[in-house]
Structures are given as C-alpha cells and as structure tokens.
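Hey,
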Amino acid sequence: MTVPALNLWKGKTVHARYVPFERRFAYDLALMDIDIDRLDEAGRQSALFSVERPNLFSFSRKDHGARDGLPLRPWAEQMFAMAGVKLDGGAIRLVTLPRHLFYKFSPISLWYGYGPSGGLRGIIYEVNNTFGDTHSYVAAVTGNRSQHEAGKAFHVSPFFDVTGTYRFTLRAPDDRLGVVVESLKHGTRLHMANIIARRQPATTGTLLATAVTRPFSTLGVTLGIHWQALKIWLRGAKYRSRPHPPEQAATLAAGSSADAPQITKDAA
C-alpha cells in the first residue's frame, strides 16, 4: 500500500532538566510528515495545505536542508553518505513542525531515509536554535529500534555549554512515532526531550481540527521555549552567550551500547 505523500503526527513532547535543579514540562504538538520527492502530490491533498505558497499550513524547501530552495534529496543523500547510508532510491520522509500561516520554527526535524523495500536505513536530526542557526546529526539505523551518540557541536540552550554528548533513541515509525534525545556530560544526564505521537491522515478535516485544537502548535513552541527559559533564568541558572556556529554542517552519530530509555507507545 502506498503511503500518502503527506501525513500528520499528533502527540506531545516532554522536556526534563536534571541539573542544577529539576524541572519538567510538556506540551501538545502536531507534526507533518512529508515525502520530499512527492511535494506536488502533498500540495494537492488538502485545500488547507500548500507547497511553496502561503496557506493555513504550508511547506517550503527554504526552511530545510541547504536553505536554497533547491530539491532536498541531493542534500539529504549527501548527509546520509556521511554515515555510510545508501538509500538506493528509497523514500525520504521529513517529519517537522509545519509552517503555520506565515510562521515557521521547528527545534528539531527528523529525516527518515528508507531503502527500496521500505526498511529504515538512516536518520538525520536537523536541529535549529532560536538564533537562526542550524546543524544536523546523522546516523545509520538498523532494526526497528536504534540508539546512537554524538558529541555536542551546536549551541541550543543558553543554559548549557557546547560540551558533552547527545544520546538519541529512535524507533522506526509505524502508526506511532517515538524519539528521545538526552544531553549527557561525564556520564550524568543533564536534560531529556522526547516526542511521542500517533499518525493521522492529512485531510482538510484533520488539518482544520489541528488549527482549532492546537492553534499555537508552531508559534507556541517558540513562545514556550522563551517562557521556560525565563523561568529557568529566574531560578538562578547560569546564562551562557551564544558561541559561533560550527563550521561543519553536520556531525556523525555512532551506535551506542549504553542503556537507553524505552520509548513508550502512549501518546496524547
């Protein structure tokens, strides 16, 4: 059965900070899942979704990859090649927060690279910060559940310096989506963020429902980041100035044998 060019994931994300004090918060989110080789088809699925033009929800090539508006597959294949991943023409699906009206910001976008038979072969974690910088972490994937680590190379939070490692735990999407990102330093977990969501069809009805029930699913992420940062700062967390972005566009993530959190099947 052919997977639609555009799908939705509805669920939640949970963030937990462990040092120098504990803090935890969660919020709902709605993600789009788009086949980057079938953008024209995705743009025809609903009157409320467009590609390269404004709408209630939309997608633009300039928001991802090389940010040059060109086809995305060459960029993605170059990134996957860093991890020795060859897709042999298999699908590449991008899971990200959509552009809502005229606004787009997605702290993390997930590029799933598949082989011709449909097996997941690689993942790109495209990370963005609120300063407009971007960096990707790339890994090969084997099996339905994988774990990999990479040295921190990119400034995300002003309350953590760019040292230590990230540990990624990923489950191949089916009807549910699950990913966990942990920040580690000297064996201590500093921060954890996860995404747990369920797949929904991207119809005019579900998109309209998303706009009504999650009106700030995209803008609200940015507002939430700054609101939580303010509360952390008021509690005394040390603020660190933004360093220069890394010169390299991506960092390789390698397999990890350390214990990792389980990705549950529960979603809001």
